[in-house]
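Contributing new records

If you add data, match the layout below exactly. Sequence lines come first and carry their own label; structure lines follow with theirs. Keep one chain per record. Anything else will be rejected by the validation script.
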Amino acid sequence: MNPAEQYFDFKQYTLAGSEKEKLLAKELSGLTRFHFENCTPYKNILHNLKVNEEFDFSAVEEIPFIPVRLFKTQKIQSIPDGEVLKYLTSSGTTGQQVARIALNKETSLLQVKALASIITSYIGTKRLPMIIIDSEATIKNKASLSARGAGLVGLSNFGRNHFFALDENMKLKAGELMDFLNKYKEETLLIFGFTFMVWQYFYKRLNELNLKPDLGRAVLIHSGGWKKLEEQAVSNEAFKRGLLDNFNIKSVYNFYGMVEQVGSIFMECEKEYLHTPNFAEIIIRDFNTWEILPRGETGVIQTLSILPRSYPGHSLLTEDLGTIVGKDNCGCGRKGTYFLVSGRVPKAELRGCSDTHAESVMMKEG
């Protein structure tokens, strides 16, 4: 068994306190050593940082990190090209550099298991009839998926009888959608899409058509940047309120994640906080000094995950701002760190799947 698989033996969100800290520190120390020995650019970075090469870290805070932007400018992988199963590319608008993440079979399988352990803890193990608020064209090239495509493929594993609600021109297939809803009206439905697209092409379009299907049995999972929606004065609360008032969707879960750590997503709970799963952690650092900030203070998010085996993506400094609210005591009952994301580091590139798509839409409309 891969040592990382022990984290899937525990029920998700049950590892707490020193037990989780000890397990993660040991696993992340081993990963740091492995990537140091197998990825020359990463080795050079750690040399320059004068990292202790015994790689026996006692706490996750000691694990060295690299900036996520580095994957946009360098080829950083810990496996030979012949072992690459597929590449994932980050979101990016025209002219932006995109990250290129190399996955081997081991990493890909771990990501699938990790995602399954998270999602099934929210919706159960039964595969549900599924509506995907996107076009099937997005996932045509399985060997080189965009962040958006990877999200669609990953979440589609939890559904059946998939219906892609948009055509290649991002137009809602309203008639087919209503037929699908009528066919499965007695069943719980799973709906997935990126935040801006759910609002722009699903919510707004159905309202324009004066269609108000009752989706009270549906579970909606969404993800992506909020920048363009916030410019339209659409907050997380307004997003949920609109879906409830118009379509009776009561179960709406956002998640925070990135292509550089696919599988390690941070799901929103019923109290509207994001949660770290058993196999991942976050740290908040000061924007200027990189010192660790206490809970309650806003800084740059560092994400740690035991999943990346084919590239040194196990400890990344993101370009997002966040705040740790607490640990092991959320009102939802889930253990682990819970937190909020508040935006992007100033001058950071527009990067979320929703935001990059939204920007391209705005450019065309402008």
